[in-house]
Specification:
Number of helices: 6
Shape: globular
Strand content: 25-35%
Order of helices and strands: EHEEEEHEHEEEEHEHEEH
Amino acid sequence: MSGQFKNIGLENIDEEHLCCAIADKKHQCGVKVKKTWLKDRIPEGHVFRKLDAKGKVFIEYAPLEKAWVPINGGNYLYIYCLWVSGAFKGKGYAKSLLEYCIEDGKRQGKSGICIISSKKKKPYLAEKKFLLHYGFQVVDNIGEYELLALSFDGTKPFFAENAKRGTIERDTLTIYFAKQCPFIPNCAEQIKNYCGTNGVAVELIEVDTLEKAKNVPCIFNNWAVFKNREFVGVQLLNEGGLKKMLEL
């Protein structure tokens, strides 16, 4: 099965699609933004591996010390995203992608692999049950969000102290975002336009450096929302999702 996959590198990134936004025209601007972000990350050891087909089947991971998440723990790999969608499910692709990452970690002499999940299934987060089957264990948690790790040497990663705050000092609707997902530019634009039209105060804070990502005051994988000073979650919001959230 491994021959069906390919890694995106600097030599082919301009020609290859990025899976998740493959069929959605409104997110093509985001694809360009994501590719620009990736071009800076690939030399750092960032891996984007996908099925060599038109489909949403991929894994994306990086050395933890270079990963844009508020997680510490030394010599680990961090999985940003593992996604197998629709008709591609049930074919063993998720198994193949995860096993590739695990073997890559061992080959590099890493201490283990880690990923953010949750007690109950949430959009954009890997399924906990699947990870536990491969030996991942919950090593830290912040409320309903959990850090799962497959340790090779007994060491464990952990959420940074700042991520445990979960509060900010301003009442304004606040969204932290990074440009590492093709969906984000369009979502941010929809929110900005809706709030501007409807008189909703909003602050969109771009996380545009590794240092900022390591120091966000909450769980963060590329997006985080605060309402009434409290952390709401990491699910991406479009105009419809924002309306529902504001009604709660």
